[in-house]
Amino acid sequence: MGDKLKGTTDNLVAPGIINYASVLRIPVKLDSNNWNSWSLFVQKGLASLDKEGHLTEKPPVPVTREWRIDDSGIQMALWNAMEPQVLSIAQNFLTVKEMWDHLSSSFSAKESLSHAYSVVQAYTRAEQGDLSFTDYFTRFSKFRDELRALFPPTTDLKVQEERNTKMDVMMFIAGLSPKYANARPLLLSNSNAISSVASTYHLLREMYGSDAPPTDISAMHTSTGILYSDQGHCRVGAFTEGEDGRIFGFSDADWAGCPFSRRSTTGYCVFVGGNLVSWKSKKQHTVSRSSAESEYRAMADVTSEMTWVRRLLKELGFVSNDLMRLYCDNQSAIHIAKNQVFHERTKHIEVDCHLIRDRIIGTKADPPSIQPVHVKTEFQLADIFTKPLRKTQIDFICNKLGMINIYAST
């Protein structure tokens, strides 16, 4: 115990134990908007007691009784300096450092949804009121510059999608009824859990309950980038040309891409003679335990599709004995497909394994019909059906898919 505390019995709750509730005095209570000033008071107060290590350092090994008592005392003192909405979050952590790290990432002005929300609210509600034109212009320009700093211009589709989702969440929270005002700080500080309007709604249901859940839009969220890409090429049509009748396909999967169910998204496209004839984007029925498993499920889907296309062409009189090439960018999935020995980790996808393996290795009744081929990710054409991409990649894939501007002058 430091010299500053010697002889002051008011600061002790027991011999050798500091009463941090009386020693660590923080003049403001933490809410969703004053993290910078509140955290500064906390850091300076603990530094004066030579206890700032509880904010930045991991617990000692082994944890001593003295350290545990100090950490608990500091934590209770900080709890006393929080608003109830913030306190409900802070009480979920065992140590001061865990609590501090979470609050810092949630409320720091640089990244938090709370700060972005306050800037957007200030910008959209800016009014002249009693201000002069000059003062109003200065104030409005400040809000505009802060908003542009938070959302700088970009051509990255993924960044645009995240930005639009963030704005949707903030507008949804801003439009909540006044009776949910107490929920706003909790929602804004829990930015990791509310990745979309749907997840914000589900969090509200957990807090307040509801008898009428809306339509499930989780699959819509997964395909946002794909729909955006299609809309961006609404003047584009598929161009076909005569080549040989070889069949080949591309398969890909966005592992655990759904933020709600963590199911993966399957995407594939099938070509006949260099012409795109079939494509698909769909959320998988079950959760995959690895990226290789999700890719393997996608390979099973495109294998079935390619087999069906070959049988259809055969019925129409177009017979080809060439192996159908299946392009995949996951080496592990290709190795599983080629390996004739089932591993215990693949038993839960054994049906898909048998399906693909029979087409690759062949059986006594049917010769091999599929040849798996590894392709680099940048040349994976099925990527456009599973995730948002950069504009340059979208243009490249659309060109390879045979999409041309049908209104362009010739």
UniProtKB/TrEMBL annotation:
<dbReference type="InterPro" id="IPR043502">
    <property type="entry name" value="DNA/RNA_pol_sf"/>
</dbReference>
<protein>
    <recommendedName>
        <fullName>Retrotransposon Copia-like N-terminal domain-containing protein</fullName>
    </recommendedName>
</protein>
